[in-house]
Amino acid sequence: MPRDKKKAKHLEDTLKLKGRLAWDQMQKSYRKESFPFAEDYKRFLDGAKTEREAVVEVLNYARERGFREITDPGKKRRIYWVNKKKNIALAILGRRPLSEGIRIIISHIDSPRLDLKQNPLYEELEMGLLRTHYYGGIKKYQWVAKPLALHGTMIKRDGTQLNLRLGEEAGDPVFTVCDLMPHLSRRVQDEKKLREAIQGEKLTILAGSIPFPDEEAKERIKLNLLDFLFRQYGLVEEDFLSAELELVPAHQARDIGFDKSLVGGYGQDDRLCAYASLRAIDSVRVPEYTILALFLDKEEIGSEGNTSAKSKFLEWIVADLLRLSGEELSDMTLRQVLFRSRALSADVDGAMDPNYQDVHEKQNAAKIGYGVCLSKFTGSGGKYASSDASAEYVAEIRKLFNDHQITWQMAELGKVDEGGGGTMAKYLASYGMDIIDCGAPLLGMHSPFEVASKVDIYETFRAYKVFFERKS
Ligand code: MN
Ligand code: MN
User: Which of 211-215, 281-285, 322-326, 383-387 has the lowest mean pLDDT?
Assistant: First the structure.
């Protein structure tokens, strides 16, 4: 080889940044493990289609693995907290005092969906329908003409609670939003902008069509449905007013492709990262620093409310941990713990779609198969509303991942002026801790059928594991 060519090759090898496919870079054993891991993950997705169900799934897993509730008496190292049935936290006490800081991974367990309105039931053209109010950032056209399952909680007048999960078992009915046939949609849909073609108020759920036998009765379909709901569940119409009912895609998570290398399913934003952090925390025995996996709600609507990242749940957890470990419990120590902590904001990243590459700036975009994504910042426009991780912290995580042969990529969501989106990172950053966004790349984010690569899922798990296991 001529000298110049040899030198160029040498420089390319030593100086140039090269992204590598996880399939090429990962150890063979890890590649193999990513498939059974995905089987467990798909079961988790099928069981955890709402935030409440995700809490139950995480809780059952944690209990089986020796986690005990904070209020349980006696000494314990593996602890959990449940907050209002919609968010949960798992911790393992470390060797070092809490005042040196803890290691936190936050993910969210809510996903975009259709919620029932508080007074949903009506009748039109001898069909029973339910009105909905969508939750989170959906593209409305994606939610019509597909089978939907009804999940949620109703509290009856006497206070008894009814948990519904209808449309998941063989033989269950499903629900659907009917769409207009293409023969007649030219003016009311086809010529409109995509976002205006289907209005929020038209996302109504078909719920029945048999009339009450008395032909003299008014609204016979609605009456018959109410009669059914009372006989089947003991419900009256007023019970809907206090209910939380969510329509989610009725399909199960599936393998995608001839080679079964990808997972398709609902709610992978962000139950992918939630599941990876669950498995990661469980894989650690006695950590150096106390580790905490926090599964939060309401991220999709801006982390508002008492089960979200903006709630003060984390402060209660740290107070409990201080009490449990016998360290001084004061406002100052609590602040110190949080200030000295390090965190990963575990949320999925938008991967480049072969059909829509133009919305990304390819040199800085997330790619399927290239491992877990780090995002120094999120937000939109001029980094507005983002938590921007420091050079020092990014370098720290970069070194950690490199030292442990994690396949990872640095990514930002899209072109600078294309749009954007935030995560929960900024809410924890307000305590002064270091935090960076870290999660798997996803295709079709917020759609009823999101897609992730099995190697990226597994590398996300491995990344969280080494983060929890780190000694410094
Ligand atoms: Mn998310
Ligand atoms: Mn989201």
Answer: 383-387
Q: 406 lies in a domain?
A: yes
3 state DSSP class of 279:
helix
Do 309 and 296 contact (CB within 8 A), yes or no?
Answer: yes
Ligand nearest to the CA of 108: 1
Strand order in the sheet with 205-208: 161-166, 148-155, 244-249, 113-124, 127-135, 205-208
Host domain of residue 414:
7-111+266-469
H/E element holding 262? strand 262-265
Q: pLDDT tens digits for 124-154?
A: 999 999 999 999 999 999 999 999 999 999 9
Residues in a beta bridge with 135 = 113
Q: Which ligand is nearest to the CA of 348?
A: 1
Q: How far apart are the CA of 269 and the centre of ligand 1, in A? A: 5
CATH code of the domain covering residue 22: 3.40.630.10
**What is the number of other CB atoms lying within 10 angstroms of the CB of residue 163?**
11
**Predicted pLDDT at 61:** 98
Whether the pLDDT of residue 1 is over 80: the answer is: no
Amino acid present at 329: L
DSSP string, 156-211: -TTS-EEEEEESSSTT---BB-----GGG-IIIIITS-HHHHS-GGG--EEEE-PP
Tell how far the Cα of 296 is from the centroid of ligand 2, in angstroms. Answer: 12
pLDDT exceeds cutoff 90 at 50: yes
- Region 96-118 average pLDDT: 98
Would you state the structure tokens that stand for residue 162, as one six-digit string? 């009814």
Question: Cα(273) to centroid of ligand 1, in Å?
Answer: 9
Q: The dihedral of CA 317, 318, 324, 325: what is its sign?
A: positive
Q: Is the same domain home to 230 and 299?
A: no
Task: Please check the confidence at residue 163 and state whether its pLDDT lies above 90.
Answer: yes
CA–CA separation, 176 and 248 (whole Å): 10
User: What is the DSSP code (8-state) at residue 69?
Assistant: E
> What's residue 420's pLDDT?
83
pTM for this entry: 0.97
d(CA 121, CA 127): 11
Which residues have CB under 8 Å from 468's CB, separation 6+? Answer: 103, 105, 280, 281, 283, 284, 287, 291
Residues 217 and 340 in one domain: no
- Asked whether residue 254 is domain-assigned, the answer is no
Rounded percentage of the chain residues whose pLDDT exceeds 70? 100
Calculate how far, in angstroms, residue 273's C-alpha sits from the geometric centre of ligand 2: 12
Residue 25: predicted pLDDT: 92
Based on the fold, state whether residues 15 and 87 are members of the same structural domain: yes
In the predicted structure, residue 451 carries a pLDDT above the cut 80: yes
How many structural domains compose the chain?
2
